[in-house]
Task: structure prediction
Amino acid sequence: MVALVLADLRSRASLARRSRIIATAKGPIEVEIKGDGPGLLVLHGGLGGFDQGSWIAHALDLRAHRVIAVSRPGYLGTPDVGSLDAEVDLYVAALDALGIERIAVVGVSGGGVSTLHLAGRHPQRVTRVVMLSAVSGPAADAGLGVAWFALRASVDVTKSLLSAALDPAKRQLVAGLFRTFASPERRVRGGLRDLRLSGSFPPPKGITVVALVVHGTADNAVPFEHAERTLRGCMSGTLIPIDGGRHLSLVTHAEVGERVREFLTAG
Result:
């Protein structure tokens, strides 16, 4: 127990050292920027933060990019901004503050709705979109549906992590993901916000930004139907089904990183 407490304290201290707050025309946003190369905005999943976004980029081996990992509104150091319109306008304001005109975007899990809305509302600022195991509509029904979603997501993710932990080459990657669970009390508000906003998010349509949709066929956290819904809303989209992949197929299936890197470098 003492070891777990000390590990959590170290992770909390690391969070404070790694990120910075950018003052934008639409309010503050927490970011971590790593690497050189073409810009890449990573929108993390539920109960995440900038640290999860950086971990996602590492898991996908996106070292050839300048990765801008943000804490989405309600997570860690980024205040809640209310609507999806205000959220994606905040991302554009952050790009303005960083002097970035256009950028590729990777949206993972609960970050999918934000990614689609950004591409739909500000297509002139987005070069390419990757939707990875990503939500594209209601993730849970109201009431007991939220509890059922939390249960099935936990079971799905646990199975993936146990499978990956059996591979010595992936143990450090799994450990890195666990470190992104620090300070859970600063992430819950954002997770509840995600569930609320996804519940009223209409099926995407008319997305003109070229898109890659990668999704495990056995994903019980965010079912494969979300990927099919995304594809129907994209005018230039490609769907890569990961046969037998669960929600963390980016960890368990090397094909995911290969496909994402290929897509991003083709632009």
Remarks:
- The mean pLDDT is 93.
- The CA atoms of residues 218 and 246 lie 5 Å apart.
- The chain is about 45% helix and 20% strand.
- The domain at 2-265 is CATH 3.40.50.1820 (Rossmann fold).
